[in-house]
Amino acid sequence: MKKRKFIKENFKLLVMALSHFTNDVHGSFLPTFVPLIVESLGITYAQAGLLKSISGGMHVVIQPLAGYISDLFSRPYALIAGPLLTALGASMLPLSPTYGLAILFVGLQSMGSAIYHPLGHGGVGHIVPPGKLASSLAIFAVGGILGSTVSSLYAISLYELFGPSVLMPLGAMVPVAFVSYLTWKAIPKLAINNSKNKPSPMDFIKTMAKTLKKIFPIWGVSISRDTTIQGIRFFLPLLIAAKGGSLVDIGTILFIISIIGTLSPMIGGKLADELGEKKVIAAGMTLAPLFLLPGAFSQGFLSISLYMIGIALLQALLPVTGAAAQKKAPESRSVVASLVTGVAFGLGGVLIAPLGVIADSLGLETTLSFIALLPWFPMPLFFLRWKNI
């Protein structure tokens, strides 16, 4: 009986990791196609950054609502609808004939991803034992990170196979529809124990405020981490393009610098279960800038290697911050997930626009240097407030 339960739990977890991969492989299309959009539409870096900020703003607004509503119901609707919307919007990006339509497609992609993530992360806590939360979240996170890692190669393959035509979104939707069907069959219901059955605006506000108070230092770490990762992935392709690199060069380099980070969450989750979340978060956030900053000032293989290590250290913390936050507020797992993975990710995206202004004024190299230091910013508050949350 225990063996059957173990297999059942892990099968559900693997299906959720697969759906995370499906969502994030499309949710990361923008950095790959943004140089193409900049060139074809003739927009500035600030306007390009605004596309990412709009995406981030969608996450900030939608994820808390999606997380709150997901905690009220047991059906995994968000796990089904989210990846379908994400894939549709993302695959339309290279077809954008105007800046306005580019904004529309980014919004559609972001809406799907924002709907998906709160229940994705929060749902893991409902299907695994508490003692395996960090390592289970690591498996789920690896699905998403692997999707983000291969996203650039997959995006280029779709573009070269179908070109900028309606066939590209049609081709992208077929595997997503299959995974959504598999998710519905494997996880028809999540064991969410909540007596509420009607969303209430006042209850939403109270729940968000109460949860945020409990996890605020962890939330600050998540914002800084996600801004750093997104900033590098967004501005590094623009720097490569500015130096004469092709779309294939951009996709290949994005893949290389992300590949180690695909497995680092497994290490981070395991260490967190053994050593505690605080030590692992402190180590990752402290060490990452020591590699990212020299990466911004160097070139070639050395620069790529340094970026690989720095990003891997930050991505190792994805399940760690999630587990730490869920332990602080286990009664609102999807709300917690919406804050530390959704709103944090969204705010990181919102900050890309002002970083784009810096890039227009001071250059891409200076912008990447500043981004490299961001992981240090929240650490004083983290150490001061950890015991009080």
Structure notes:
By secondary structure, the chain is mainly alpha-helical. It has a single domain, classed as Growth Hormone, Chain: A (Up-down Bundle). Helices cover 83% and strands 0% of the residues. It has 17 helices and no strands. Helix 1 runs parallel beside helix 4 and helix 15 crosses helix 16. The radius of gyration is 20 Å and the shape is globular. The mean pLDDT is 83.
Write the layout of secondary structure elements.
Elements: H1 2-27, H2 29-41, H3 45-70, H4 77-92, H5 99-127, H6 133-162, H7 167-186, H8 201-242, H9 247-259, H10 264-275, H11 277-297, H12 300-315, H13 318-328, H14 333-350, H15 352-362, H16 364-373, H17 379-385
Query: What is the CATH topology descriptor?
Result: Growth Hormone, Chain: A
Mean pLDDT over all positions: 83
**CATH structural class:** Mainly Alpha
CATH architecture: Up-down Bundle
What letter string, H or E per element, gives the SSE order? HHHHHHHHHHHHHHHHH
Proportion of beta-strand residues = under 5%
Question: What about the largest sheet?
Answer: none
Given the C-alpha coordinates, what overall shape results?
A: globular
Low-confidence stretches: none
* Total discrete domains: 1
**Contiguous helical run count:** 17
What attributes does this structure have?
Growth Hormone, Chain: A, 389 residues, 0% strand, mainly alpha
Describe, in short, the structure shown.
This protein is mainly alpha-helical and 389 residues long. It has helices at residues 2-27, 29-41, 45-70, 77-92, 99-127, 133-162, 167-186, 201-242, 247-259, 264-275, 277-297, 300-315, 318-328, 333-350, 352-362, 364-373, 379-385.
